[in-house]
Amino acid sequence: MLVLKIVTNFTSTHTLRKYPGDFARPDGHNWQVEVSVCSIVQSEQ
Known about the structure:
Blueprint: E1 2-14, E2 27-39
Antiparallel strand pairs: 1-2
């Protein structure tokens, strides 16, 4: 079986425009994404 796994991180920022209070200012988040794909390898005959 073959397994390919990729793990990466990224940062995103958003604002809530026209929203009163502290939520109107930019707010950032850090994310981690993990993707795995697996496949069964069959031998050629």
